[in-house]
Design goal:
alpha/beta; Rossmann fold; 3 domains; 5-stranded parallel β-sheet; 11 strands; binds 2-acetamido-2-deoxy-beta-D-glucopyranose; Exostosin_GT47; transmembrane helix
Amino acid sequence: MAGRLQGAAASSSPLPRAFLLLAALALFTISFLSLRSLRPAAGPSLDTAADSSVAAAVAKKDRSVLPIQPSSSVYHSPEVFAAGYAEMERSFKVYIYPDGDPKTFYQTPRKLTGKYASEGYFFQNIRESRFRTDDPDQAHLFFVPISAHKMRGKVYHLPLSSAILLLVSTRIKPIIMLLVAGLIELKLNCSYHVQDLFVWALKLLSCVVLALQGTSYENMAVIVKDYVEGLINKYPYWNRTLGADHFFVTCHDVGVRAFEGLPFMVKNSIRVVCSPSYNVDFIPHKDIALPQVLQPFALPEGGNDIENRTTLGFWAGHRNSKIRVILAQVWENDTELAISNNRISRAIGELVYQKQFYRTKFCICPGGSQVNSARITDSIHYGCVPVILSDYYDLPFNDALDWRKFAVILRERDVYQLKSILKSLSHEEFVSLHRSLVQVQKHFVWHSPPVPYDAFHMVMYELWLRHNVIKY
Ligand SMILES: *[C@@H]1O[C@H](CO)[C@@H](O)[C@H](O)[C@H]1NC(C)=O
Ligand SMILES: *[C@@H]1O[C@H](CO)[C@@H](O)[C@H](O)[C@H]1NC(C)=O
Ligand SMILES: *[C@@H]1O[C@H](CO)[C@@H](O)[C@H](O)[C@H]1NC(C)=O
Ligand SMILES: *[C@@H]1O[C@H](CO)[C@@H](O)[C@H](O)[C@H]1NC(C)=O
């Protein structure tokens, strides 16, 4: 793409007419951009969440601190889940828009490892699954297959029109200045030198190169908007419901913001995201919380190993949120809670971090820069009962799964009583939580190809539940 653009810029630069064309394009873009105020990048933080804590506390009423309920099922209603799941397996059809070069960030996952692996797995699994249909008239839902995670990695080939738009929108100031300088030169001095034009073209090229070095958030927003608007104009499906039967999937929070230039998408479409905190406008009945799963796991699943779980509680991580700072401050010297405000590297030789999950009863999962984190699925995998320590969080698959059967769900202000709350749980209660946890492990793992009841099928189930809301 750089080659194409450079070629275009270099070949047109000696022609005065090209200045006028580019200037017109630039002016158009300025007015276009000023209408569309792109929000600066800002990760969701718990601080803003805390500000509205009063309202939320009122809205949520007082939840019982103790999570144990006598019934044994990990599902809210095993019958409803079983019936819905079977129907989903039988009938669910998704149409994947075929547009976009699959060699770039359309259709394909970036990789199936790392923090954002869930996005890659979903893209890969849906593409190869039986849920996919090539007949849009059969489809219950429409998948907009653009991967923000992959886009973030590299710059790929774009159509020239979007390339120019992207370029102008991200390097707007230097380009305008160069254009104005070029126009003044022409107007005042018709006997301009080829040499000057050469210098001018070089400057413009450097702008192009800078703009193409990485796909910034702004670039992504432009690419995503172009893509979705292209689909809206080309196919009749979006307009029927204003996007309510459309969904996109993104694990990286930058992906959530990349779609914000499309208000209908935010308002109407199903957003399957790893950052389901309400301060990024997550809408629980419409959107879907995607679990963040750091695969592959370094060690096998834990389970039926209660005798080895001698540590009461464990957390080690960055203090990158208010709740984490408090957690570390209050409990760092405790002898029963292994709270360390230093991240234990997951990579270090002896797998110290992962092994600690095997030795612990309760793994504390405070919200960080994101409320969601791979720590929750790590805890589930290693058989350590997760203690969700955050307000405003839509737990993955909570339409089907009763999180209180296999996790301890606390509010942030409970951090001061953390130890007494955990100690107040009887051994039987812990055993019950642990047993249930082992039962849900299968729902929080991705496979390729997917297997029944894994994370992919759970996401499909959640999508299936939402397709009933709007039916064309
Ligand atoms: C026009 O360009 C020539 C050569 O670069 C320069 O000598 C002259 O001063 C310029 N005239 C104006 C009005 O800028
Ligand atoms: C959908 O509606 C938009 C806005 O009214 C329109 O521009 C677009 O052409 C429509 N798409 C189709 C396929 O008719
Ligand atoms: C408990 O830990 C010991 C020592 O690490 C190990 O050999 C044993 O298999 C563990 N028990 C269970 C049930 O995992
Ligand atoms: C924990 O121990 C350190 C070092 O002894 C001390 O500086 C710190 O104040 C202690 N923290 C708490 C909460 O007691």
